[in-house]
Amino acid sequence: MAVEIVEKPTQKDIDANNNEKNQSLGAFQKLSKDLLEDERILKEFTLGKRIGFYRMRGDLGSGNFAKVKLGYHCLAKEKVAIKILDKNKLDEKTQKMLTREISCMERLQHPNLIRMFEVLETVDNLYMILEYASCGELFQKIVNQGKFSESISRCYFSQLLSAVQHMHQRNIVHRDIKAENVFLHINGTLKLGDLGFSTIVPTIEQQLNTFCGSPPYAAPELFKDDYYYGNSVDVWALGVLLFFMVTGTMPFRADTVGKLKRKILEGVFVVPDYVSESCRFLICQILRPVPGDRFSIPEIMRSVWLEGSTYPKQLTSSLLKPNADQNACQTDEEVEAMNQLRSYGVTEEMIAGCPDSSRNNINGIFRLAVYQAQKRKIEKQREKELQLKQQAEEKLKQSKLNRNKTGTQANGGGKNQQSKFCLLL
Ligand code: ATP
Ligand code: MG
C-alpha cells in the first residue's frame, strides 16, 4: 500500500508563502491587513499617532471643542487636517452641532471651502478628516503683518463671497464667519472653514433664533430681535471681515460684550480716510442696521469696488463615493479617481459595497483622489495661464523693441529724439 508522506511546512516555508500572498495583495488590502496585524502600526494606534489610513504628525491648533492635528493618508500620500473631538466631553447640544457640521460639509464642494473627506470614530474620539490649509489663519496673518492692500483684500474677499454664495445656494448658513475661521492656502487661495455653527435651512428665508458666532462679528438683529435670517447675518459678518482686511482693525470695538453690543446697536463706525471711496461705500452698504437694507451677495458682487473680480465656481464633481459604472463618472477627475482606487487594489466588489456614508475608508480614498485630480487640473490651468501671460509679455516686449528700433532708424540714430511714428504708436 502506498503511503503519502505529507511534510510539515517549516517556518521559512510559511514566511515565504505569506510573503508571496502579501505580494499578490494590492496596496489597499495590504494596508488594511497591516492595520489589524502589524505590531508597529498597532502601537501607533495606542500612542494616538494613527487613525485608520492616516498617520498623525503634529498639532495644527485647538479650539473650544476640538484639537486639530496634521495628518497624512498613507495610500493617497496627501496631507490632511484631522479634527479630533473627545466624545466623552460632548453634551447633547454639541453633539447635535457636530452632526450638523458633518452633514453641511458633506453637501459642499467649493474651491474656497474646507472639504471633508472622511469621518472616523473610536470608543472615545471622533475624527473629522479635512482638507489641510497650509498657510494659517487670515486672522493671524493680519495680526502679524498688518492690514492688506485693497487689491489683495479684493482678491481674498471675492473668494469668500463665492464660498458663502455657494453655501447659501445650498440652503446652508455658516453663522460663524470670522477671520479666525478663514484659512490661507497656497497660491493666494483662501478657504472658509469651521462649520461648527452652520445649519441647513428649508429655505434661505427661514427664520432662526439661536444666537451663534462671535460678538464682534454679530449683526444687530442678533441682539435685539427674536429671530433672524441666516443669510443676512452671514453678509454682516462679511462686512466686518472686509473692514478688518482693509484696516487691520474692527469696526466695533469695546472691552466688554455689553459695551460692544451697544456699539453694534448704535451702528456707528468710522472708516479710516485712506480707504478708497468705492470700498468705503461697499462697507457702509453691508453694515446697514436693518437686514432688508443690507446689500445681498449679488449686489456686493456687482459693486464698483469689486469690478473686474472673478468668482471661483463650485467644483464639478458630484460623486461622494466611487461608482463602478463608468457612466456615473461625470468628470475626468472622477474617472482618474476611480483608476487610482483600482491601482490600489480596490476591487469592483468592494466598490459596489460602499455605503452612502463619510464613515467608510474607500469613500475617503475616493474623495481624496478626486481632490488630488482637481488640484492637478487647477495647477495645469494655472501653468497654462502663466505661460500665456509670459508669452503675451514677451510679445509686448518684442514689439516695443521693434518700435524703438524703427524709431531709432527713422531718427537717423538720434538717442533722445522721439519720432512721429513712435508717438503715433
Ligand atoms: P473655535 O470654537 O475656537 O472656533 P473649533 O473647536 O471649532 O474652534 P477649529 O476652529 O475648527 O476648532 O480649529 C482649531 C484650530 O485648528 C484653528 O484655529 C486652526 O489653527 C487649526 N485648523 C483647523 N482646521 C484646519 C485646517 N483645515 N487646516 C489647517 N489648520 C486648521
Ligand atoms: Mg474655529
Please give a structural write-up.
By secondary structure, the chain is α+β, with helices and mostly antiparallel strands. The chain folds into 3 domains: about 30-130, 2-Layer Sandwich (Phosphorylase Kinase, domain 1); about 140-300, Transferase(Phosphotransferase), domain 1 (Orthogonal Bundle); about 315-380, no CATH class. About 45% of the residues lie in helices and about 15% in strands. It contains 15 helices and 12 strands. The protein has helices at about 10-25, 25-35, 40-45, 90-105, 140-145, 150-170, 220-225, 230-245, 255-265, 275-285, 295-300, 330-345, 350, 360-410, 420-425, and strands at about 50, 55-60, 65-75, 80-85, 115-120, 125-130, 170-175, 180-185, 190, 200, 205-210, 230. It has a 6-stranded antiparallel sheet. Strands 7-10 form a two-stranded antiparallel sheet. It has a two-stranded antiparallel ribbon with strand order 8-9. A hairpin with a 4-residue loop joins strand 2 and strand 3 (about 65-75). Helix 6 (about 150-170) runs antiparallel to helix 8 (about 230-245). The radius of gyration is 28 Å and the shape is globular. The N and C termini lie far apart (about 110 Å).
Keywords:
alpha+beta; Phosphorylase Kinase, domain 1; Transferase(Phosphotransferase), domain 1; 3 domains; 46% helix; globular; disordered C terminus; binds adenosine-5'-triphosphate; binds magnesium ion
In short:
This protein is α+β, with helices and mostly antiparallel strands.
SSE diagram, text form:
Layout: H1 11-24, H2 27-37, H3 39-46, E1 50-51, E2 54-62, E3 67-73, E4 78-86, H4 92-106, E5 116-121, E6 125-131, H5 138-145, H6 150-169, E7 172-173, E8 182-184, E9 190-192, E10 199-200, E11 207-208, H7 220-224, E12 228-229, H8 230-247, H9 257-266, H10 277-286, H11 297-301, H12 332-343, H13 348-352, H14 361-410, H15 420-424
Antiparallel strand pairs: 1-2, 2-3, 3-4, 4-6, 5-6, 7-10, 8-9, 11-12
